[in-house]
């Protein structure tokens, strides 16, 4: 490129549909007998003389699929320091958002970092264990119990599980003792299960009907 004796340059640009990528090359040459080279006028459709920001052919749309990961590129779960990332094998890029991997759901932050603990998304809360996998069912966290529905969303209000009723407050934490809801009082046993029938509390007896409501 820096040799002043070169007399000709060849430039070509090619779009590969298989990888959805553009390729460009430059060749420099010295012809001892320029007469044998022929005319140097570019053929129709050639990219010779075009600037790097212009194309006489069609440019791929911005939404074209990303190219697959290059051969030898690490994909799948990758750890950097104390943080885990997931490299999508189909694109070679960091995954973000919800991903179903190996039979479990994971949440990757916008920077690609795998989430653990509580995650807020779409107005709902989800809990990811220390492996990053989304939990369902009962979860103990910070000395309190929470219930995650089958889709992983944290429950609030009444929850039926195993033939028993439980009440989760607005933070999602399971309640025990007396709870007022919908104009009635209910009693939740120490394990959180709603009581019915006679209940002794504070040296007094209370009667709760089949719905759990206190009958005054």
Automatic annotation (TrEMBL):
<dbReference type="Pfam" id="PF01473">
    <property type="entry name" value="Choline_bind_1"/>
</dbReference>
<feature type="repeat" description="Cell wall-binding">
    <location>
        <begin position="135"/>
        <end position="154"/>
    </location>
</feature>
<feature type="repeat" description="Cell wall-binding">
    <location>
        <begin position="115"/>
        <end position="134"/>
    </location>
</feature>
<dbReference type="Pfam" id="PF19127">
    <property type="entry name" value="Choline_bind_3"/>
</dbReference>
<feature type="repeat" description="Cell wall-binding">
    <location>
        <begin position="175"/>
        <end position="194"/>
    </location>
</feature>
<protein>
    <submittedName>
        <fullName>N-acetylmuramoyl-L-alanine amidase family protein</fullName>
    </submittedName>
</protein>
<feature type="repeat" description="Cell wall-binding">
    <location>
        <begin position="195"/>
        <end position="214"/>
    </location>
</feature>
<feature type="repeat" description="Cell wall-binding">
    <location>
        <begin position="95"/>
        <end position="114"/>
    </location>
</feature>
<keyword id="KW-0677">Repeat</keyword>
<feature type="repeat" description="Cell wall-binding">
    <location>
        <begin position="155"/>
        <end position="174"/>
    </location>
</feature>
<dbReference type="InterPro" id="IPR018337">
    <property type="entry name" value="Cell_wall/Cho-bd_repeat"/>
</dbReference>
């Amino acid at each position: 490129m820096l040799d002043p004796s070169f007399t000709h340059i060849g430039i070509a640009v090619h779009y590969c549909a298989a990888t959805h990528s553009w390729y460009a090359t430059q060749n420099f040459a010295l012809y001892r007998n320029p007469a044998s080279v022929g005319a140097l006028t570019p053929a129709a459709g050639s990219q010779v003389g075009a600037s790097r920001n212009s194309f006489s052919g069609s440019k791929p749309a911005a939404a074209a699929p990303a190219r697959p990961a290059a051969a030898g590129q690490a994909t799948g779960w990758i750890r950097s320091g104390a943080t885990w990332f997931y490299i999508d094998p189909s694109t070679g890029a960091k995954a973000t958002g919800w991903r179903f991997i190996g039979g479990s759901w994971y949440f990757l932050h916008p920077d690609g970092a795998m989430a653990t603990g509580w995650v807020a998304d779409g107005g709902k809360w989800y809990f990811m264990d220390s492996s990053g996998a989304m939990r369902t069912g009962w979860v103990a966290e910070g000395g309190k119990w929470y219930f995650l529905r089958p889709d992983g969303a944290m429950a609030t209000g009444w929850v039926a599980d195993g033939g028993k009723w439980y009440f989760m407050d607005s933070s999602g934490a399971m309640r025990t003792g007396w709870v007022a809801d919908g104009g009635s009082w209910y009693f939740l046993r120490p394990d959180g299960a709603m009581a019915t029938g006679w209940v002794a509390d504070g040296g007094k007896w209370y009667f709760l009907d089949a719905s759990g409501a206190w009958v005054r």
